[in-house]
Amino acid sequence: MPEVNVEINGRKYRMACEDGQEEHLLALAGRFNASIEALKGSFGEIGDNRLTVMAGIAVLDELQEAERRIARLQHDIAELTEAGEALANEAGELEHKFGKRMAEAARKIEAIASAIDEAGAGAAPTQENGRL
Asked: Coiled-coil segments, which residues (predicted)?
């Protein structure tokens, strides 16, 4: 298991991590150290333990806010998915109704065309009735 040396608040710590996670651990430590440095800039030297606890709480506050945003986004996604499914169902129903109406219109047009053909066939000129 690889080990990484990280620096937090001016102190070095040796930490173990999984293979391939070295850079990730260094980045996390750097981010945590930046939180401590920001608090130091705001409050001055208030003691290592207190500073570390404040930084940890600040990071957890950010995490909790991110989790709330994720939950809201997941809720929004669920609502949008449900609305999309409802629209898809409605579109399918409209398509089905439209198809039925088109088929009915086509049937009526064919019936009219047949009636016209039949009427025209009865009045068609023939040599027998003397009309051409």
From this structure: 63-97
Query: Which whole-number Å values give the CA distances from 93 to 6, 7, 100, in the listed order?
Result: 62, 64, 11
Angle formed by the axes of helices 22-43 and 48-122, nearest 10°: 120
Nearest to 57 by CA among 20, 32, 77: 32
pLDDT tens digit string along 5-49?
A: 999 999 999 999 999 999 999 999 999 999 999 999 888 878 888
If 0-12 CB within 10 Å is exposed, 13-18 middle and 19+ buried, where does residue 37 land?
A: middle
Its pTM stands at 0.61
Contact (Cβ atoms closer than 8 angstroms) between residue 8 and residue 29: yes
DSSP code for 5: E
> In sequence order, which ranges of the chain are alpha helices (DSSP H)?
22-43, 48-122
Q: What Cα–Cα distance (Å) separates residue 83 from each residue in 17, 69, 90, 104?
A: 44, 21, 10, 31
Residue spans per domain, the chain = 3-122
